[in-house]
Amino acid sequence: MRETRSARGILLGLAGAGLFVAALDAYLVVTLLPAMLTDIGLTIERFEQATPIVTGFLCGYVIALPLLGAYSDIRGRASVYALCVVVFAAGSVVTATAGSLPWLVAGRVLQGLGGGGLVPLTLALAADLYSGRARTVALGAVSGLQEAGSVLGPIYGATLASTASAIGGWRFVFWLNVPLAAVCAAGLLVASRDKGNRTLPLDPMVDGPARTFDWKSAGLLGLGLGLLVVALYPDDPAHRATSGLFIPIGLLSLLVLALYGWRQLRTLEPLVPRQLLRSPRFAGVAAANLLIGAALMVALVDVPILGRLVFNLDQLAAGLLLTQFLVGVPVGAIVGGVLAGRLGTRWTAVLGTLLAAAAFIQMSNWQAGELAARVGPFRTADLALGACGLGFGIVIAPLAATVLELTRAEHHGLASSLVVLARVMGMLVGLSALTAFGLFRFRQILGTPQLTDPDVRARIEHLGRLVAAAFLQEYREIFTIAAALCILAAVVVVTTIRREPLTPSLQPQ
User: Would you say residue 196 has pLDDT above 50?
Assistant: First the structure.
């Protein structure tokens, strides 16, 4: 028993290490973008130039989620995990050798495809290896690793690029992905060779009738969602809330998703089991993750901007203002995994959403001099941001565990994909909605300033105060909306995530 437990821990640790490397890569580009663009002959004076690099990774990430998660249910976790690592490493090589923007985007798309596939695979592996309380703890640990990679990514990228400037700078960062990913994949494949241990389900599911993979359905779903990413992502956020090609690409996305829906209805064995779609608990988790993803984007986007425009911080200090939030998320993910095993998934998720809501309510009352306010040795702003990140982290494991409880082992990959996908799409929709609301409210609040002072300098100073006040009011309202989204997510969880009788096709084995 102890050897089995140890083997499980090693397997999950190796898979989590690969996921951590991919998470580092997803966020390190934040600090490397200026150097990357300059190196290929572009400038970062306008955000639009960097948009294809960002959306390329997101497209690959979203396309991979339903495709590779479901494919691992047929082929086995270890082999598909290795495939994802190969694609991720190939994308890293293309990115590291890119001499133009198209090649840079192509490399990031490949990295997104490989890195995106690792997320549901690792979550599914945790569900395969553990059950009950141990499963929620494992899911929390895996989620904590992923979120920790997100926190450390920008710092990791900037540090490596600066220290390795003599041997390639930012390119060295992507070259380093290759051996790191290879070690994780090789270790997982070697550790999974224990054929005599049937408690380590890394091979294809062999019990029951043979299953085939519906490539067309998975491809249509992934492509439709990838196109939706391109349509929703704002390429010029100072002037519009979505892509400049929102209408044509959005319509094409709807057409592709409609074709997927048509296949879902007509296929005898659809990509997503019909019983899962009919489950109130599944619908509740999907809705809650959409709402949480939208609220999460408020903190990620608005806090640094608020630091620059209202608190008058420089770029580095404004970014560091978000540190407490980012650190709180992985800590919360681990705490949520432990609490879910004790309080249950339902009430742990409610606790997390309400904690995030309470933090947003406090943030909606921030003043221009908020950074001077303290509770003992701590700034109140830091406490609110830490609590907000903690709340968002706490909900991750219980929501994932809720869906995994509904599915048999042969659908764990798909189920994990859908959980992550709902949150990512919520973040994208939230980003577009946030940009649209921000543009509208700022102009509405500021109006047409009446500048009558004959002194030009006095007029400029007065306009600056009016702009800062308008931004502060705008962000207060946005934080209030984010709090409402979290409260609504808690209501959804309470009303939908209840014990329900499971149909035979959904009954976990």
Answer: no
